[in-house]
Backbone:
């Protein structure tokens, strides 16, 4: 069972971590490109 | 050629909703899936490893398609698609290359074997890691984008080799055979199919966000170049 948990945990950590990284960088760049006005983002 | 950003907000919402619904269904089906009579509990890795391979294949095929369309149409959006698909594909390949050895350790008693399928999977992974390295060292150059497009198209040739490696090995491969419609045990078809749906949804979710990020990076580079040119004049 520990192998199964390890395989699923690896999947969630890698893809979830990457998704989180994308969201953070997107939000930061949107803020930067809209001159710090977050209301223009999204 | 500079283009306006594609309107992606509705794609962001659509992919998030599809991913959330399919992930919940997938988790429920995997949790309730019957235990494989030959492999035992470890057989449940089947519901994550082949779907990860699907995500990697999708990424690398789209890298080739995006590269071909970029060469044909000279439209920057296709270059962003190719770069984004390669990065997301490599992430899925990492999942495939980690979940596979975890299953192997529990089943074969060893993490790795230099089997033809495994070796070609590693080769496929390194082909597209090299693609990403090439792009990261020379970001923003049209010439490199064209070279990367040709390289990305050529790399797709490894995919059928990888997929049919077990047939090519003619019985000498220790990797399980590619799954067919009748090779799954009773009750295992739905969790397996939902794994493929969820992997596709996760791939689309990450891809649309990575494409937008690529465009935002280009836009920032354009603005910096413009500001630099104004400062120099």
Residues:
């Amino acid at each position: 069972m520990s192998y199964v948990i390890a395989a699923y945990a690896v999947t969630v950590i890698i893809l979830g971590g990457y998704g989180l990284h994308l969201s953070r960088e997107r939000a930061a760049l949107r803020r930067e490109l809209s001159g710090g006005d977050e209301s223009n983002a999204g | 050629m500079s283009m306006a950003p594609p309107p992606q907000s509705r794609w962001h919402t659509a992919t998030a909703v599809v991913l959330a619904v399919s992930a919940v269904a997938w988790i429920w089906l995997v949790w309730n899936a019957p235990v494989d009579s030959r492999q035992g509990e470890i057989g449940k890795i089947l519901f994550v490893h082949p779907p990860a391979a699907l995500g990697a294949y999708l990424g690398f095929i789209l890298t080739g398609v995006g590269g071909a369309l970029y060469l044909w149409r000279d439209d920057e959006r296709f270059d962003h698609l190719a770069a984004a698909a390669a990065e997301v594909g490599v992430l899925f390949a990492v999942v495939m290359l980690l979940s596979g050895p975890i299953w192997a350790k529990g089943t074969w008693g060893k993490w790795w074997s230099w089997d033809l399928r495994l070796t070609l999977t590693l080769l496929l992974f390194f082909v597209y890691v090299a693609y990403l390295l090439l792009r990261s060292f020379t970001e923003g150059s049209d010439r490199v984008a064209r070279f990367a497009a040709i390289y990305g198209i050529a790399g797709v040739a490894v995919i059928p080799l990888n997929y049919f490696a077990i047939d090519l090995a003619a019985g000498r491969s220790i990797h399980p055979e590619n799954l067919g419609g009748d090779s799954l045990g009773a009750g295992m078809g739905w969790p397996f199919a939902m794994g493929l749906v969820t992997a596709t949804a996760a791939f689309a979710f990450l891809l649309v966000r990575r494409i937008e990020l690529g465009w935002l990076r280009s836009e920032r580079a354009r603005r910096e170049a413009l500001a630099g040119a104004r400062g120099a004049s």
